[in-house]
Sequence to fold (375 residues):
Amino acid sequence: MRILVLNGGSSTFKCRLDEISPEMAPEMAPEMANDPPSDPPKPLWEAQVDTDSRPIPEILSPLLRSVPGKVDAVGHRIVHGGAKYRQSTILTDEVRAAIAAAAEVAPAHNRFELAAIETAGRIFNATQVAVFDSAFHATLAPAAYVYPGPYEWLDHGIRRYGFHGISHQYASRRAAEILGAQIPAAQIPGAQIPGKHLRLITCHLGNGASLAAVRDGKSVDTTMGFTPLEGLMMGARSGSIDPAIIIYLLRHRGYTAEQLDEILNRESGLLGISGVSGDMRRVLEAMEQGNQRARLAFEIYAHRLCREIGAMLGSLADAHESALDAIVFTGGIGENCAPLRDIVAARFEFLHPRILVIHAEEEWEIARECCRLLR
Fold:
C-alpha cells in the first residue's frame, strides 16, 4: 500500500510517501498494541513547504502533482476533531464538518488541513484518512480533562483534549524500545503483561510545545488543553497565563477578542519576550551577542519547561514504583537545543531518569495508522 502523508503544522507542511506492508503497521489501536516501532524505512519521496501568505491550494498543488507513481491513500494530521472524533477515521463529509467546527479552537491548523484535504482530493483518486493529534490523549481520566469551572462546560465540549499526540505516541513507543521494555497491552482479562512498566515524560518542543505524562504506554496527563494555546511557553504562543489578564485587557485596555487571539497565538512566547524571533536558534544567537531580552526569553522557556515537567511528575508518581524512568525530548528544539536539555537533566538529576533524544517521526506514525485502519 502506497500512503502519502500530509502533516500540516502552524508554519510548514511536511509530505512523505511510503510503501507499507501490513507487518509494518500495528494490528490494533495504539493503546491496545504492544509492538513498539523500529526506525522507519527510507521514504519513497518526501518534501517540505512553508505555509506563507499564499492560499494552501496554491502552495500544495504543484508539490502534490510531483509525487511519483500511484497513491493508494492520503493520511492527514488533523489537530482537532472535537469531542466526537478521537481515533483515526476515514474522511467523510461528516468528519470534514467536525474538523471545520473545531477550527475555532485550533484556527492555525484545522483550516490549513481542510484546504489540504480538498487539494489532495482534486489530485488523487485515493482514500483519505484523518489521524487526530488529540487521539493519544483519549486515555486521560476525568480528573485530568475536566476543567474546574461550571460542570455545564463539559456539555459544551469545553475540556482538556491535548495535542501533539502523534508525536507523543511515537516518542513514547520508541523510548520503550530503546529502553529494552515492551509497553504492556491494555488491561485484557488473562493477558500476560511482559516487561517493565515504564513511566515517561515526553517533551515535544518545536514551534508549538507540549508535555505528556505516559504510564504503561498511555497518556495520563498533558500540558495542552482545550486549545493548543495552554501549557508551555512556545515560539510565538504565550502558553498558560492568568486568565484574569484577559479580563483586565478587555475591560481596561480596549482589546477585542480578535486582537487578543493574535497577540496570544502569534506575538507572544519566545518572539514576544525576545523581540528577535520565535525560532530558538535565533534566540540563542542573540544571547551570544549579549541580547538580554533574548536571554530572558530562554530563561523563561527553561523555567516553565521544568515547572511543567514537575507537574507531569506529580501525575505519574506512585509510592510503590519508580517515579520516572525517562525524560524524552523530541521536536526541533527538543532534539537540537542541548543547553535546554542540560538544564532539565541537572534539575531532575535527583530522580536518576534517563534522558533520551528521539527524532520526531510524525509522518511515519500517521502512515502506520492509515495502514492499520485501511487493512
In short: The chain has two domains: 2-167, 185-357. The longest helix spans residues 292-316. The chain is about 40% helix and 15% strand.
